[in-house]
Amino acid sequence: MKTQYYSAASLDGYIATEDDSLDWLFALGSLGESSYSDFIAGVGALAMGATTYEWVLRHSAAVIAETGSPWPYAQPAWIFTHRTLPAIDGADIRFVQGDVAAVHAQMRAAAGDKNLWVVGGGELAGQFLDAGLLDELIVQVGSVTLGGGKPLLPRRLLPPVLRLTSARQMSAGMVELRYDIQK
Ligand SMILES: NC(=O)c1ccc[n+]([C@@H]2O[C@H](COP(=O)([O-])OP(=O)(O)OC[C@H]3O[C@@H](n4cnc5c(N)ncnc54)[C@H](OP(=O)(O)O)[C@@H]3O)[C@@H](O)[C@H]2O)c1
C-alpha cells in the first residue's frame, strides 16, 4: 500500500509546457506501450491539482475518444483547488484544499489495500513529499526536451532520499525510472 507519484516528464524535467500542453507526450507513443495498465490496476484512490483537472475538462473530446468517458478513472479522486470548478458527470470526485495529510487519510480509508496515486502536478506531489507521505516516484522519461514548463518535482532531493529500484526502456521514446523515497 504505497503512495506513488507516477508521471511522465521530458528529459529536462517538465511534465507539461508553460501553457499546459501535453502534445509532446502523446507524440512519444501510446499508453499501451507504457506500464500504465499494470500501474492503474493497483491504484485505489488518486489526487490531482486544479490545473491537471482543468486539462481533463478542456480535452474532454480527446479523453472520451481514448477512454470512452469524459473522466478516465474508476477510482475515487480528490481534486485540490481554491476555486469552484465544474464537476464531470459520473466522476467520483471531491474538491478539497489545504493540508494534504488530512486528504491522504481520507484517500487511504477509501483505497482499501490498494495504492494511492498522486497524479500531479509537481508542486502538489511536493506537498505530499514535504508531509512525509510519498513512498515512490515513478517517472516515464520521454526522449524530448522542452526548455521550460511545469516542473516534475520542484524540490531539492539529495542523497540518500531517492533510491533507484528499476530502470526500464519502454520504447525508443521512453524509459521508466522507479525510485523508493527514503523518509
Ligand atoms: N506529464 C504527465 O504525466 C502529467 C501528469 C500530471 C499533470 N500533467 C500536466 O502538468 C500540468 C500540471 O500543472 P501544475 O504544475 O500547475 O499543477 P496542478 O497540481 O495540476 O495544479 C496546481 C493548482 O492546484 C491547486 N492546488 C495545489 N495544491 C493545493 C492545495 N494544497 N490546496 C488547494 N489547492 C491546491 C491550486 O489551484 P487553484 O488555482 O485552485 O488555487 C494550484 O494552482 C498540467 O498541465 C497537467 O495537465 C502532466
Automatic annotation (TrEMBL):
Pfam families: RibD_C. SUPFAM superfamilies: Dihydrofolate reductase-like. Residues 7-175 form the Bacterial bifunctional deaminase-reductase C-terminal domain. One of its GO terms (biological process) is riboflavin biosynthetic process. GO terms for molecular function: 5-amino-6-(5-phosphoribosylamino)uracil reductase activity. It comes from the Bacteria. InterPro entries: DHFR-like_dom_sf (IPR024072), RibDG_C (IPR002734), Riboflavin_Biosynth_HTPR (IPR050765). PANTHER family: 2,5-DIAMINO-6-RIBOSYLAMINO-4(3H)-PYRIMIDINONE 5'-PHOSPHATE REDUCTASE (PTHR38011:SF11), DIHYDROFOLATE REDUCTASE FAMILY PROTEIN (AFU_ORTHOLOGUE AFUA_8G06820) (PTHR38011). This is Dihydrofolate reductase. It comes from Pseudoduganella flava.
